[in-house]
Amino acid sequence: MTRPKVLLLGQIEHAHESWNSLSSLAELVHTQARCRAEFLDECRSGQLNGTTVIYRTFESLSITGKFDPELVRLLPTSVKFVCHNGAGYDQVDVHACTDRGIRVSNTPNTVNDCTADVNMFLILGSLRRFNPSMMSIREGKWRGHPPPPLGRDPQGKTLGILGMGGIGRNLKKKAEAFSMNVIYHNRSRLSEELAGGAQYVSFEELIRTSDVISLNLPLNKHTHHKISTRELQMMKKGVVIVNTARGAIIDEAALVEALNSGQVASVGLDVYEDEPNVHPGLIANPNVILVPHMGTWTYETQTAMEEWNISNVRSALETGVLRSVVPEQMGM
Ligand SMILES: O=CC(=O)O
């Protein structure tokens, strides 16, 4: 009997032992492609036939491009599972996969603490308006001339969490340790136990009443530019916004305008609409803290993500079922 193949798109950096252990179940293969055109040719050539499971990383986007309908259509018919190493799986068109009978998984939960930590760092840094002075001290200008406006304390401020999944709920606990009052909006209201006392409000109430707004929702066609000019104008003047989810949830051009007008006081970003390119208006504005997508950039979390993704591959091979199928395919 021919052995199934597992195709690796991207690199295994940490969990080498677990990855190698999969070789008792399947042949582990790599792509030779250096760009999307070459990958599509590889698919067409039949070289990847027999691949049952694909393990892909966020960075493999630079080789294959998005797993969009064009690419998904060209995958060998043997492919039944796409295991994405990351919590956010907007690079994969789940509907196109579903149409072809391919199941998709991600790595939820492994990223919660790490991402919520960066989230809290951005909240504190933006509220305290540390960025201008962190820039001026390196220019030999101490706090800057004139000194920056006074920062604000987190204590007693209302934090509106948009998207109360694993990261949102983790952030809630951290923010409460700083005596912030947490409200949230989510596609569906959480059970009392999951909400943990956070007040559920409508989207409009959240953006009208929060002192700090944190974006913790997935990017998809419903959430693309969820925050644009209209929503920014509805916010409290001097609001603080932080985003560790995906850049395109905010219309960056509209955000730059709102920062320039003072409607938004300060912003903390880990993600951008067109990574690795950053809107020049964000780079130019000292009231923006810029982190180059490092929400999960720790040894512990990167290792845990790889281990989790490998366990999805193993589960697919051994039982035909993924450990953490994406919500759109749950119950299918
Ligand atoms: O951005 C990081 C992730 O989606 O895990």
From TrEMBL:
<dbReference type="InterPro" id="IPR050223">
    <property type="entry name" value="D-isomer_2-hydroxyacid_DH"/>
</dbReference>
<dbReference type="GO" id="GO:0030267">
    <property type="term" value="F:glyoxylate reductase (NADPH) activity"/>
</dbReference>
<dbReference type="GO" id="GO:0005829">
    <property type="term" value="C:cytosol"/>
</dbReference>
<dbReference type="InterPro" id="IPR029752">
    <property type="entry name" value="D-isomer_DH_CS1"/>
</dbReference>
<dbReference type="InterPro" id="IPR029753">
    <property type="entry name" value="D-isomer_DH_CS"/>
</dbReference>
<dbReference type="Pfam" id="PF02826">
    <property type="entry name" value="2-Hacid_dh_C"/>
</dbReference>
<keyword id="KW-0520">NAD</keyword>
<feature type="domain" description="D-isomer specific 2-hydroxyacid dehydrogenase catalytic">
    <location>
        <begin position="66"/>
        <end position="326"/>
    </location>
</feature>
<feature type="domain" description="D-isomer specific 2-hydroxyacid dehydrogenase NAD-binding">
    <location>
        <begin position="121"/>
        <end position="295"/>
    </location>
</feature>
<dbReference type="Pfam" id="PF00389">
    <property type="entry name" value="2-Hacid_dh"/>
</dbReference>
<dbReference type="InterPro" id="IPR006140">
    <property type="entry name" value="D-isomer_DH_NAD-bd"/>
</dbReference>
<dbReference type="GO" id="GO:0016618">
    <property type="term" value="F:hydroxypyruvate reductase [NAD(P)H] activity"/>
</dbReference>
<comment type="similarity">
    <text>Belongs to the D-isomer specific 2-hydroxyacid dehydrogenase family.</text>
</comment>
<dbReference type="InterPro" id="IPR006139">
    <property type="entry name" value="D-isomer_2_OHA_DH_cat_dom"/>
</dbReference>
<protein>
    <submittedName>
        <fullName>Glyoxylate reductase</fullName>
    </submittedName>
</protein>
<keyword id="KW-0560">Oxidoreductase</keyword>
<dbReference type="GO" id="GO:0051287">
    <property type="term" value="F:NAD binding"/>
</dbReference>
<dbReference type="InterPro" id="IPR036291">
    <property type="entry name" value="NAD(P)-bd_dom_sf"/>
</dbReference>
